[in-house]
Amino acid sequence: MSSMQLRTLTFAVSMALAGAAMAQQADGRTRFILAASWQPAFCQTNQKKAECASQTGERHDATNFSLHGLWPMRQNYCGVSDDQKAADKDGKWASLPQVTLSAETQAALVKAMPGTQSGLERHEWTKHGTCTKMSAEDYFGVGVHLLGGLNASAVRELFAANIGKPVKAEAIKAAFDKSFGPGAGDRVKMSCRRAGNVKMISGLTIGLSEAAGSASAKSAGLADLIQGAGKTSFGCDEGVVDAAGF
What we know:
Elements: H1 3-27, E1 32-37, H2 39-44, H3 50-53, E2 66-72, H4 82-89, H5 103-112, H6 120-127, H7 136-151, H8 154-161, E3 166-168, H9 169-180, E4 188-195, E5 198-208, H10 222-227, E6 238-240
Antiparallel strand pairs: 1-2, 1-5, 3-6, 4-5
Helix pairs in contact: 5-7
C-alpha cells in the first residue's frame, strides 16, 4: 500500500469514527428524567391537597413549572425497607423519614415543589433519590437547579403567555429547541389530563444524561444534559395551559 493510500485510508477511518461518535452523542442515552408539573392543572383534580387548597394566582407555581422529581431510569426504592415501601405506595408520606436539608435548600425546595405541603419530598427521596449516589442535599439541590433552567427558558415563557389557551406540541418542541439546542424537543414527553371537557397540560418529563446524577449537576447547564439524552415520543399533542384556581 502506498503512503498516499495509507493516508487516505487513515483519513477515512478517522472520519468514520468521528461520525460514529457524533451519532452516539446525538442519540445519547436517557439516564435521568426531570419531571416538571404544571401545578394549576394538577390541582384541578387534587383540590383537597394542601398545596392546591392554598394555591393563588400570585404564587410562584401559578405561572412557573413546579418540581415533581428527578428520577433515575428504571430504579426505585434502593435500600428502602419493606415497611417504608408499603407506606409510600399507600400514600402515607407523613410516616416516611423526614428529609434533612440545609435552610437554603429547604427554602428553595418549598418554592420549587409546592407538594412539600403534602410530603412529596419524602416520597421522591424514598422512591427515587435513594437510587442515586447523591445525598438528599445534593439530590434536591440538583432538581431545584435544573427546574430553574426550565423556568428561565422560552418554554416557561410560552406557557405563561398562553394561560387559559391551548398550546400545540409543535410550539412546545420549538421552544425547547430555541432554549436548549436543536433536537431538545425530541427528548421531552408531555402529559395531559382531563378536567371536565377540557384537556389540560399536566406536566413535562425531560430526558437527561447520566451527568444529571451527580452533585456537579447543580452548576450544569440544562441544555447539555438534555442533548446527552435519547429521543422519545412527545405524547400528548395539545392541551390547555390551566390557570390557578378552580
